[in-house]
């Protein structure tokens, strides 16, 4: 099938980034969310990233203007889904929310439309079971910040077809992304490693091994990571990090047990950049 119109479900930081990549890649892109305020924030973020892309010579002014023309925002999921040729879901990593969204997408979209989930840990096989088209359900895991990160980790579910995987690789390529194709297992490749590193950093902080700044610096300079685990956790959201670890702990065992200090930060509402304070304090940035 010809894919011209992509629907992004969820307008948080990941959904916004995916919509940016989709529009810059030449797709007509619809962003949908249940909240108008979230859509307004996403629109502002995407427009800001497009402008920064021009300033950094990553895209041309013509590309920016064409991308802006291709973007639209709506709270009407049913109508948007009915027009879509391809869907990428980017809602919170909560099973009940995923289930509700995919049941609606299965109902509202054309029967040959691929339904991709941006999950970093959850099972595309289980998500596919929420639909009547498990062969067209797949995980399409983007990385934050999407405009800068080159990788899309594609994870097949048990019933995902070869054709679906090939189409998803093509779509990601048109968005300017490199891909790896893997078979489903909890946490895929990258989330298992990233979650373990981030969790161990919290354990080291709890044990007094070093300050957040020194631990981040050691990982960045000693292991050549582009961003230390605390900086990354604050950007992704410590609640998201904790949710991922809880899922991995339940499926893969004790080595993923969340650090007590991470649990304490989340209970305190110190979730990272989105709340103004996580491991680091961002209140002066606002």
From TrEMBL:
One biological process term from GO is:
fatty acid metabolic process
Task: Return the Pfam families for the record.
Answer: 3HCDH, 3HCDH_N
Site note Important for catalytic activity applies to: 141
Q: Where is the 3-hydroxyacyl-CoA dehydrogenase NAD binding domain?
A: 6-184
Q: Does the keyword Signal apply?
A: no
A Gene Ontology MF term for this entry?
Answer: oxidoreductase activity, acting on the CH-OH group of donors, NAD or NADP as acceptor
- Highest taxon of source: Bacteria
Q: Where is the 3-hydroxyacyl-CoA dehydrogenase C-terminal domain?
A: 187-282
Would you indicate the residue range of the signal peptide?
none
Q: Where does NAD(+) bind?
A: 10-15, 33, 93, 98, 120, 144, 274
What keywords does the record list, in alphabetical order?
Answer: NAD, Oxidoreductase
Quick check: keyword Protein biosynthesis in the entry? no
Q: Could you tell me which pathway this protein works in?
A: Lipid metabolism; butanoate metabolism
PANTHER family documented for this protein: 3-HYDROXYACYL-COA DEHYDROGENASE FAMILY PROTEIN, 3-HYDROXYBUTYRYL-COA DEHYDROGENASE
- Tell me which family the UniProt entry assigns to this protein: Belongs to the 3-hydroxyacyl-CoA dehydrogenase family.
Name of this chain's protein: 3-hydroxyacyl-CoA dehydrogenase
């Amino acid at each position: 099938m010809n894919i011209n119109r992509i629907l992004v479900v969820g307008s948080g930081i990941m959904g916004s980034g995916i919509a940016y990549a989709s529009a810059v890649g030449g797709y007509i892109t619809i962003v949908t969310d249940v909240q108008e305020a979230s859509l307004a924030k996403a629109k502002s973020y995407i427009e800001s990233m497009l402008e920064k892309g021009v300033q950094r010579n990553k895209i041309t002014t013509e590309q920016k203007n064409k991308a802006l023309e291709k973007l639209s925002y709506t709270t009407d999921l049913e109508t948007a889904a009915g027009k879509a040729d391809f869907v990428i879901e980017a809602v919170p990593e909560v099973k009940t929310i995923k289930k509700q969204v995919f049941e609606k997408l299965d109902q509202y979209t054309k029967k040959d439309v691929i339904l991709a989930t941006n999950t970093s840990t959850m099972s595309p096989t289980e998500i596919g079971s929420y639909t009547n088209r498990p062969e067209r359900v797949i995980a399409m895991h983007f990385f934050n910040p999407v405009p800068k990160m080159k990788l899309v980790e594609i994870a097949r579910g048990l019933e995902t077809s070869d054709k679906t995987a090939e189409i998803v690789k093509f779509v990601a390529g048109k968005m300017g992304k490199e891909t790896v194709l893997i078979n489903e297992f909890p946490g895929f490749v990258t989330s298992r490693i990233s979650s373990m590193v981030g969790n161990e950093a919290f354990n080291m902080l709890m044990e007094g091994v070093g300050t957040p700044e020194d631990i981040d610096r050691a990982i960045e300079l000693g292991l050549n990571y582009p961003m230390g685990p605390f900086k990354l956790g604050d950007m992704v959201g410590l609640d998201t990090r904790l949710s991922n670890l809880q899922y991995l702990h339940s499926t893969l065992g004790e080595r993923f047990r969340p650090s007590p200090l991470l649990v304490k930060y989340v209970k305190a509402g110190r979730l990272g950049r989105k709340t103004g304070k996580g491991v680091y304090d961002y209140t002066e940035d606002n």
